[in-house]
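Page 47, continued from p. 46.
Same chain as before, 97 aa.
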Amino acid sequence: MRDALKNLFSNQITLEDNSQFYYTIKPYELTNALGNVIAVLQEYNFTKEGDNTGQFSCILYKTTEGNWYDVAETNKIIDNSVIMALKLAVDTHELAH
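Result:
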């Protein structure tokens, strides 16, 4: 089962502290209070390598212009330094490819 999950997450990044994360990218429609789509973002869903409990989950959003968009209700329990490190690692990884 674990190997099947690794194949599902084709993108992998390593942070400066050598912790590894897998992530998927999918489109996300940001809507206003009336339900109208105001932007289409890329949703990055991260899981941590070696987290057998499945408790680490982080979702980040990025615009098509390459700017990160923070949604207030997501990632309340994740340390801001981890979020910043993930953003930096993804930007670096995407520039290299």
